[in-house]
Amino acid sequence: MYAQVMVDIANANVDRLFTYAVPEDLPIQKGQRVLVPFGAGNKQTEGFILGLSQEEYVGPVRLKSILRTLEPYPVLGEDQLELAKWVQGAYGCLLVEALRMMVPAQLRGGRVREKQIRMVYVPETVDVEAALASFQKKDGTLRAPKQHEILELVSHYAEGISVGDIYGFIPGSGAAVKALLDKGLLQEKGCTVFRSPYGNKPLERDAPRRLNSAQQAAYMAIVKGMQDQGGTFLLHGVTGSGKTEVYLQAIAKAIETGGRAIVLVPEISLTPQTVGRFRSRFGQRIAVLHSRLSPGERFDEWRRIRLGQVDVVIGARSAIFAPLENIRLIVIDEEHESSYRSEITPRYSAQEVARKRCRQWGATLVLGSATPSVTAYLQAVKGRYTLLSMPDRVRDLPMPAVEIADMRAEFAAGNTSIFSGPLYRRLQQCLEAGEQAILFLNRRGYSTFVSCRGCGYVFTCPDCDVSMTYHKQEGMLKCHYCGKSIPVPRICPQCKKPYIKYFGVGTEQVQQQLLEAFPGVKVLRMDMDTTRGKNAHDAILTSFERGDAQVLIGTQMVAKGLDIPNVTLVGVIAADAALHIPDYRSCERTFQLLTQVSGRAGRSDKPGHVVIQTYTPDHPAIQLAAAHDYAGFYQVEIAKRRAFLFPPYGIFLRALFMGEEEAGLQVRAHAFAQGLRQAVEQAIQQAGGDPRAILFCGDGPAPIRRREGLYRYQALMKLARTAQAGAALKAAYAFAAPQRGDGFGTLEINPSDMF
């Protein structure tokens, strides 16, 4: 027998199958990981078994043999092997890079192992009563009383008890346990356990809730889709309309019929509330995958899925690759989120991968959002997706009233505070009523940049072409791209004068000014600075939900996934923060963010109110968000996209080059752009199209020219979405593939971040 092995080395020169002999005494399966000798030096290298053959090998060289398997089970199923090959073709990456997406990083290199604990038990040959009696002295006292106590304790556990638990019950019992083992009264065994991401949180069961008419209609449509083995649904429900309950009941139906489900949510939405609802409904048959897990927890959750102990996987983007079989339903909540697109190679779209997995299993895909992406909504309008609408909140609760505060008028009236008059008054009323408020600002730190008033010098990161943010609590200037920190200077390095001035507002300053405006108010802040610890995110939200604080200040972390009944006020400090950045999606993202954060208010019987502070109160994105008018916004936005041939009517292709030598990058980006144009033009012509479908092709420095010490240049192409677009993209990938490496990753299609 011989095997086809893909070695786990991300290099285009070795991204192919190598043939190895299989030792006769080595049980092996397709999809297993193995250790093989590789290269001239026979370096021990990990690899994946992608094929097996019983035929006799006929070749020019003597085959090297597989050394051993790394796990006793296949880490990759047939469906995942097929998926990896699809990812390779769809995103122009190496096959081994696609394979790596299917397994936890902790598995590679043996960085995490299964957790073993020591267990002790009483052997069947031991007469427990006689053994306990042997500790009795003639005077009625006990010799070795700890040994007696331990033996009695262990005898109550037929399967044994962990040594750690014994130490907990009987402190200082280590020597006594050893003595019992030496006497043969106890025996020891190892036991594999799973590390739980839930800690000691109790599991509270939750019964399905009664659906209203809109929820019931959506649920029945999804169930029919599952019965028909396929289809894509766009569930458009306003904030608070009960989308999660529809997901839960549809998943329960999938499980009832022998299937399984994957649920994707943005990382920032993986709150204790969200996970708790799924746990309470499906118990231990749920697995969670996200970046806040420890390496051991993530490995064990993956292993539970691989071993078939899980019916539902909930997680962030990468959970779409979970080794789940018999998938009947995939849910992507908040489908509009840009975080569903990977920013590292392979630069995959979780939605596209989900569609592929649905085709593999005949599963149904549900895309849910209160603010669907215009691309997804267009698909629904065209009938490619089935549109399900839930226009009202559950229990007929009203949407929060929204007030727009014109900060230009506030300044003209002499108000230079962070808080407009309307927001200040609403905060006062909220706090007096014993209710809670959320203040949203998508900028952390104290001041967004620091400058010299004397000469205009702006403090920028030494490794990135961006200004540094002032963090007052730490007394440091920080780069939010590379993390570099420097002490706050007292004098300007350029003019040597002490005219240092702080500009802009971050969450840290909002917190300070709130405490000054409302002395004694209890405040929590949630941003990247306050949630670095493993459980910090959960701790802050749990504390706020418990009522330990009256106001929660935060970045986009507070915009989604929160359902706190006592929150009656949401204040948006700076609605314009993302409105005017040079990205064709800036209006869409502003509308989505404002709508989502506004939806945190008034989710119980107490009415909600929202104050949006802005310097552009007449902008359609702000006006339509205030009116909760998604349909109106969609019409405005899709017309703009059509007029300027922005996606979905056009396609952006970007190749990003990074390196320490700027001149070489410039030359390389220019040559790439020229070659790309020629390859795409030829493909369009051969497909019978007009090369004028190439609307733009050029090269130059990236918007952020230098990042983390590396210069960044890009080649950028814009295509009209014509019948020949598929042929053009195929040609673009074929042109780019051989040029990978040395500072160039992969070609991106409609990148989520144009910077």
Question: Mind explaining what this structure looks like?
Answer:
This protein is α/β, with parallel strands linked by helices. The chain has 5 domains: 2-110, PriA, 3(prime) DNA-binding domain (GIY-YIG endonuclease), CATH 3.40.1440; 123-185, no CATH class; 213-394, P-loop containing nucleotide triphosphate hydrolases (Rossmann fold), CATH 3.40.50.300; 401-444 and 506-640, P-loop containing nucleotide triphosphate hydrolases (Rossmann fold), CATH 3.40.50; 650-749, Alpha-Beta Plaits (2-Layer Sandwich), CATH 3.30.70. It contains 21 helices and 30 strands. It has a 7-stranded parallel β-sheet, sandwiched between helices. A 6-stranded parallel β-sheet has the order 16-26-25-17-24-23, with helices on both faces. A 5-stranded antiparallel β-sheet has the order 2-1-4-3-5. A hairpin with a 6-residue loop joins strand 20 and strand 21 (485-487). The longest helix is centred in the last third of the chain and has 25 residues, at 662-686. The chain is globular and about 95 Å long.
